[in-house]
TrEMBL record:
Source organism of the structure: Winogradskyella endarachnes
Native organism taxonomy: Bacteria, Pseudomonadati, Bacteroidota, Flavobacteriia, Flavobacteriales
Sections of the chain in a coiled coil: 31-58
Keywords, comma-separated and alphabetical: Coiled coil
Protein name: LSU ribosomal protein L21p
């Protein structure tokens, strides 16, 4: 046999055996540690994936809630705009005031929107109406009799005796410049009643 081949094979086998034994001796439990660490890392990974799924679900729910709130907000804005449009003052065609025509009928100078032109309204009652933002014949003509009564009631007991039943109609005639008709009607009235 050829010793040249056998010696390297024998040295290689001995080295392999020594390497195996040294590996077992020095790091024998190393494989078990790795398995434990891998198992722990896999458990951590599973927990992270579960937390991520929960966060994504929460984010999706938050986005849905936000979109619902935005839709509600947009709906409320639309309703407010529609409501504001419904309460918007209609186009008002003002009837021009003719002081000369009023003076010709009443025989005295009449100021525009002077509520005392209405039979039954004096300066104190006019002041009450002004305090309730009723400052023109047009505004008074658009008041209900109940509104007129509540204005009088706000003035106290001394205004209880007044009866505002015809005041809105008289104010309308004044606003429309129907001075002759207003004067004739007032001749028939008893203190605005």
């Amino acid at each position: 046999m050829n010793w040249c081949i056998l010696i390297p094979l024998l040295v290689g086998a001995i080295c392999a055996l020594l390497g195996y034994l040294l590996g077992k001796l020095l790091g024998g439990g190393n494989n078990d540690d790795c398995e434990e660490r891998v198992a722990k890392l896999e458990a951590d990974l599973a927990a992270c994936k579960k937390a991520r799924a929960t966060l994504e679900a929460d984010l999706s729910a938050s986005k849905n809630a936000a979109s619902l709130l935005q839709a509600d907000l947009n709906s409320a804005k639309t309703e407010n705009a529609n409501l504001a449009a419904s309460f918007a003052a209609p186009a008002v065609t003002l009837i021009p005031f003719d002081a000369d025509a009023a003076k010709a009928v009443f025989g005295k100078k009449i100021k525009q929107d002077d509520l005392t032109v209405v039979e039954g309204i004096g300066p104190k009652i006019q002041e009450l109406f002004h305090n309730h933002d009723v400052k023109t014949w047009k505004a008074l003509s658009e008041c209900s009799v109940e509104k007129c009564q509540s204005v009088l009631t706000s003035g106290g007991d001394r205004f209880k005796m007044h009866k505002p039943g015809t005041w809105p109609k008289q104010a309308k005639l004044a606003y429309e410049g129907k001075w002759e008709e207003l004067s004739n009607w007032q001749d028939q009235l008893d203190g605005g009643k």
